[in-house]
Amino acid sequence: MNPVLVVALVCASTVQAPDCSRETALDIITGPAHTLQECLMQGPVLAANAGHGNDRDTYVKTRCEPRR
Length: 68
Fold this sequence. Notes:
Layout: E1 4-12, E2 27-33, H1 36-49, E3 58-66
């Protein structure tokens, strides 16, 4: 099992970055990562692969959480 969970939060551009959370996100995309560095790079990639790469009305905030 991978030790880190990548959480890509897709938030509306009207939401301030500190307020972008699981509760305020328009979409939440998760995936596995082996290291913290891999996690930080994977978030935007996961969101882009889900079709959230070129939308000017949204942005992606990446969180790295320990797997439970």
